[in-house]
């Protein structure tokens, strides 16, 4: 199996040669590729329209709707990659965890996992549990042409934080209590989540995803020594599980300036950076042999078009010496972002970096 071809060998080579996948592989690109975390949904009126009356989790299980929402930002913004429309808790729902996504709140778990007995809630995930994912990706690869599709999953720590807290959390106190107080149970929990996450990513790659992103959104809450001891083994297990497919593996978290080197070491090909660390400094922390993704502050999009260009220029200048750069925001698109500001940003990055 050649690198970055799906096992079925169906992936057209125009996808393989796309600017996004080339940048991930640290090859020369015709222009800096751009996509946005949380580009699907959120600020788009056409998204709000098709989602009307359909709860979030249900919308993730309807293949035609998933395909449509995934394609909307590609049509509108001319981004260089699509991200599969789903949520990090979808695989947990698929194995029967009682949870919901509450509008304006996020994932809420009915019975938080805090004891060894609670671990029994986490059974293995099989492709049959998420047949709608395989189906939706089939529809998408047919429509996307040479535009790569990014599959994704939540990393073990971030999934554990929702499962242990029972919902979104600022301080992650229950999660840390378990991590420090019962290291063996914690390790077993993260290992279970690594198995589920690996299985979920494999389904997406085998269906045709050209790259995967592992979101460890909240891991920036940890110090490096704790990350290395208590989180890295599980994240490494996930990256190792999908290594043989040869598709780029992207790893991202918020507030992870002190963890960037370790997150690369965990097995990422591309390290995502939030807006707090300039990309040249991030490259020093990550070291050679990795591409970087980022890192315009999503709040910058609320300023004037001129200010957006100035701040974008700063990102591109800091990225000038990188081995590979995928332009993105430093975190997801904020819900009230003007969609036209995103379209203008894609065009600006493309024209500024066209070779
Ligand atoms: C931490 C996390 C979650 N989900 C996700 C993360 C990691 C990325 C990050 O750090 O932002 C990942 C995610 N969630 C969603 C996507 C879709 C693809 C994309 O456009 O990037 C992706 C990649 C859709 C969604 N996920 C969610 C929505 C909103 C649901 C709705 O509109 O009803 C969407 C479009 C819900 C959700 N789900 C989660 C949160 C915090 C929320 C927001 C709650 C809110 O503000 O309403 C958990």
UniProtKB/TrEMBL annotation:
Pfam families: URO-D (PF01208). Pathway: Porphyrin-containing compound metabolism; protoporphyrin-IX biosynthesis; coproporphyrinogen-III from 5-aminolevulinate: step 4/4. Its EC number is 4.1.1.37. Substrate binds at residues 38-42, 87, 162, 217, 331. It is found in: Cytoplasm. The record marks 87 as: Transition state stabilizer. It is an enzyme of class 4 (lyase). Keywords: Cytoplasm, Decarboxylase, Lyase, Porphyrin biosynthesis. Its main location: cytoplasm. CDD domains: URO-D (cd00717). Belongs to the uroporphyrinogen decarboxylase family. PANTHER family: METHYLTETRAHYDROFOLATE:HOMOCYSTEINE METHYLTRANSFERASE RELATED, UROPORPHYRINOGEN DECARBOXYLASE. Catalyzes the decarboxylation of four acetate groups of uroporphyrinogen-III to yield coproporphyrinogen-III. Homodimer. This is Uroporphyrinogen decarboxylase. The gene is hemE.
């Amino acid at each position: 199996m050649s690198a970055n071809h799906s096992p079925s060998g169906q992936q057209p080579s125009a996808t393989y040669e796309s600017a996004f996948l080339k940048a991930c592989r640290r090859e020369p690109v015709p222009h800096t590729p751009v996509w946005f975390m949380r580009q699907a949904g959120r600020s788009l009126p056409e998204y709000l329209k098709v989602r009307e009356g359909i709860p979030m989790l249900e919308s993730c299980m309807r293949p035609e709707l998933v395909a449509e929402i995934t394609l909307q930002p590609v049509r509108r913004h001319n981004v260089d990659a699509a991200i599969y429309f789903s949520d990090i808790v979808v695989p947990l729902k698929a194995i029967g965890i009682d949870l919901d996504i509450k509008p304006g709140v996020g994932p809420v778990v009915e019975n938080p996992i805090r004891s060894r007995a609670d671990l029994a809630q986490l059974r293995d995930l099989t492709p049959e549990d998420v047949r709608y994912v395989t189906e939706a990706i089939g529809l998408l690869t047919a429509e996307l042409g040479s535009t790569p599709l990014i599959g994704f999953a939540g990393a073990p720590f971030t999934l554990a934080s929702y499962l242990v807290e029972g919902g979104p959390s600022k301080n992650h106190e229950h999660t840390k209590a378990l991590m420090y107080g019962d290291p063996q149970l914690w390790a077993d929990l993260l290992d279970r989540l690594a198995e589920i996450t690996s299985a979920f990513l494999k389904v997406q790659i085998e269906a045709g995803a050209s790259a995967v992103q592992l979101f460890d959104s909240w891991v920036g809450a940890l110090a490096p020594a704790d990350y290395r001891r208590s989180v890295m083994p599980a994240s490494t297990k996930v990256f190792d599980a999908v290594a043989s497919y040869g598709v780029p593996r992207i790893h991202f978290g918020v507030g992870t300036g002190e963890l960037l080197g370790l997150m690369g070491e965990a097995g990422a090909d591309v390290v995502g950076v939030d807006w707090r660390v300039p990309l040249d400094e991030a490259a020093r922390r990550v070291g050679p042999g990795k591409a970087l993704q980022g890192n315009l502050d999503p709040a910058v999009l609320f300023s004037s078009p001129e200010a957006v260009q100035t701040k974008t220029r700063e990102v591109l200048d800091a990225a000038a010496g990188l081995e590979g750069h995928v332009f993105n925001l430093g975190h997801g698109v904020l819900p009230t972002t003007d969609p036209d500001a995103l379209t203008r940003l894609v065009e600006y990055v493309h024209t500024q970096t066209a070779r």
